[in-house]
Amino acid sequence: MLRFMFVGDSMTIGSAGEHTWRYRMWQHLRATYGGPFKIVGPRETLHDPVTDAPTSYEYAEPGFPLAHLAGWGEGWFHMTPLIRETVKEQRADVLLVSLGLIDLGFYTDARQTDANVRLFVERAREANPRIRMALMPVIPNVRAQGDAPFATSVADFNELLAKAVADLDTARSPLVLATPPASYDVDLDTYDGTHPNARGEHKVAEGFATAMYEAWGLGEPYAA
How far is CA 34 from CA 1, 27, 30, 210, 217, in A? Predict the structure, then answer.
């Protein structure tokens, strides 16, 4: 049985009342994977905007596996120290990772964030030498549209992330760069310029699904 773990920030944990791209990805795997799999992770809740804490179980679609490793306001900076023990405890086989916006916005520059990416990969492999990882770059967001230095930082990091994936990819523990479709639009695919709406959730899930299908032959092409 293949064990998938979602790793991410606010776009991955989601808020009360949302489906999240995790749900869209689970639906896709159910329809196309063709074998037993499990969603794993040490956390289950959504972010509650009323309490500003990860305390909500108000998923828009109850019944799908809630497990994840995601947090509102968390990035590579926060997840790298957790990943070795989490992979070990959860016995994860595939990591679907969407991080970086928070790091660049508040904690680390592009090169420091790249260093955390590489350490994250190293630590995940210490827990499971055969783990697979699909890594999402920082996707389009409203801050990058209006803040030129931040946009440059995002572009620099995304280039470094692509290089890290190429550098660290191995036959034993393959890495792949996942990207949302080129049609991803901040105005149409988010509800606030950053967090995906239903359209955006499908497109983020499609980015991961396409990468895994093309690189590893896992599943099939994405169909919303």
Answer: 11, 12, 8, 16, 12
